[in-house]
Every structure is written in C-alpha cells, then in structure tokens.
Amino acid sequence: MLPASPPGSSVTVPRNALDSAQGERSPETPASPPTATATPKKRQTKSAAKPKKKRTRAKKGAAKAGRLTPWQWTAVIGTEILALAASALIGIIAVLGRSAGWFAGTGLWSNLLPFAGMVLAVGITNAVLLRLWLGMRAKLVLKGMVLPAVLAVFVAIGAGWFAVQDEFGRDLGNLRTLVGGMQEAERTTIAHQVFAAYRRSDLTQMQRMIERAQIYLPTIHEAAKAFDVDPEIMVGVGATESSFYPRDSKDGGRGLFQITAPPKSAIGVVKKHLDADSLDMLNQRHNTFVAAATLHNYLAEMRGDLFLGLLAYNIGPANGGLRSIMTQYGARDFVTIQPYLQNLPRDYPIRVLTAALAYRLWHTEGRLPRYEEGRNAMHIQSVGIPGLNQVFSPEKRAGKDNAA
To answer: Which of 8, 50, 269, 373 sits a CA distance of 20 to 30 A from 136?
Structure first.
C-alpha cells in the first residue's frame, strides 16, 4: 500500500506499477460500447445493392462477349455493318428516286429547293436512326453479342424484299435519270420507244419466232461469249435480220444474220477462232460467229454506244459507214443522228432491242405478257431492256484477244 501524499503535492507513479495494474485487469472486462452508426451502415448496404445488379449484368454480357474469338467477333460486327449499310442504301435510293419523280422540273421554289430539302431530311433522318440504333444496341449486347447482327440481317432482308418490287425499280430509274444527265435521258427516251414497239407487236408471232430460235441459241451464246457481246442482243439481231429463217436476201445478205460485207478484221479473227481456212456464210455456225465479231467491231468503233453500234452494223461500210455520216452532219449520238437517216432504217436499234426484250421475258417467265394489261407495264419496265444497263468495254475485249 502506498503512503498518502500530502495535498497539493504531485504523485509520481512508477512505470512498473502502471504496467502491473494493466496486467491485473480482468480479461472479462467489457469492451467499449458500440457507436451509434450501426443503423446507417445497413442503409448504405441496401442502397449499394442496386449498382451491384447492374455490374452483374454487365459482367454477364462481357462474359458472353468474351466467349467469341477475335475472328468471330469481327465476322459478327462486319455482318451487322454490311446489313445496316445495305438497308440504308436501299432506303436512300428509294427516297431520293421518289423525290426526283415528285419534284421533277427546273423551277427554283417548286422543284430544286424542295428536292434539296428532301436530301437534307434524308441526312438528318439517317443520323437520328443511327443514334437510336446505337442506344438499342447497347441493351441488346447485354443479352447476347450476336443479337444486334441478327436484327440487322432481318432489317436487310426486309429492305431486299422491297428492292425487288416494281416501285423500287421505278425509283431507281428516276434517280438514274437525275444523276445520268443527258446520257441517261437519251437512254430513257429510247427505252420508252422500245416499250411502245413491244406494245404494238404481234406477241403470238413474236413467240413463234423465239421458239424457232431455240435450235440456234447454243451457237449464239458461244459466239457472244467468244467476242464479248450480249447474247440477248445477238438474239435480237437475228430476229430482226431473218426472223430466224436463214436465207439469202435481195440486198446480198446471207444466212441467219444476213451477212453482207463484214470487216476483214472480223473475218480474220473468226477464222483463227474456228481454225478454218475459209468461211461459208450458209454455215450457220460460221454466220453466227462472223455476226458476233462484226458487232463487236462496230461497238468498239462507236466507243461502246449500243444504239450507234447496232445502227452501224445495219448500215455497214457503204459510203464510209455510220461514222462518216455522223462527221458530215455533226451528230454525236443516236438521238441527233436519227433525223438525218432519211433513206436508212433509223428504227433498226429499236426493233433489235424490242426482240431482245421479248426474248428476255420469254426466257425468264415462259410467256410474253401484254404491256397494257394490269400492272404489266411497270413490271416489264422493271425487268429492263437488254444492253441498256451494261457497259461495253473495248479495252477488256482487247485484253482477252492479246491473252489468246
């Protein structure tokens, strides 16, 4: 027991005494009471549970995405982009083509400005649709990485179905006329001449003529492939020249394609191709190959212009041929040369293309629909005229000849 200290004096407690006192404290001494923050902790735990669910979903989506290999991921994303791009292109063509039909004309306020406004509206609409797609895509990815691509493919299928309808063909034609300028306007004018000629045709006689052509079709396709010309155009030439009745005519034409004075270059190429020392124009195989080579030469001379090439084929080399006539009168295309062909068959290309159109319809549908019945006019226009949407390339053919 320590002696009592007088009042006012300081007491010095030895360090060892403090240590012993702490050592003598009972281990059962209760700990300090808990603070009053237990209840708020529970509230924080409950409020923090919601973000955990979001993180869990994100982790699940990331786990599903992680199962795809880099190549699979690239294929999925590529499919989605291509499907959306194809759908957007079809939609833009349809809207702009329809607008070109609505606002056709040269007026500033009634035609040009409304069309420009439609172009602006198309751009804004595409931007809005893209933003909506990205927002929806973020939700779809959480459920499955491939879901956006699958949905995009379904959208593209719907757009593709619309693209094969006659209405889309009309919209595409309107847009082609708008962008193509004078050249496309010429094509459109001649196309409607062909449609009108088909409408006036005796379809029964036309179908019989096409049936007679069946025996010659294998040779026609072989010759067309050899000289890089359209086989449907070749059928049209044969129908116009002989109605597929091979014969000699009063003007010197011979055989199926009424060969008169073919270019020497065409004769030489055909001899080499058929490995023949001489050609007999009454031999329908020789006749067909010479016709294909001759048409190829005239198309090359007319720089791929189908109408002028057919007209040159019909006129032949007499009086310098078509090129000499065009130079004399300053004509530059089929439309401007027509008024000067007084004593020559100015409608020859129209008749050839009409027969080619009939052959295409018969070949694809097994019949010749009447142009004026129901919606046949729109349908036939959507089928298209052979040769009008194709480009002849003399350079391409020259490369083949050199390779051979």
So the answer is: 50
CA 357 – CA 235 distance, rounded (Å) = 10
**Structure tokens, 152:** 């995009």
Closest Cα partner for 155 from 173, 142, 136? 136
Quote the mean pLDDT of the chain. 80
What digits encode the pLDDT tens for the residues 71-107? 888 898 999 999 999 999 999 999 998 998 888 877 8
From residue 174, alpha-carbon distances to 35, 88, 183 in Å are 81, 18, 14
Two structure tokens written together for 248: 């000699």
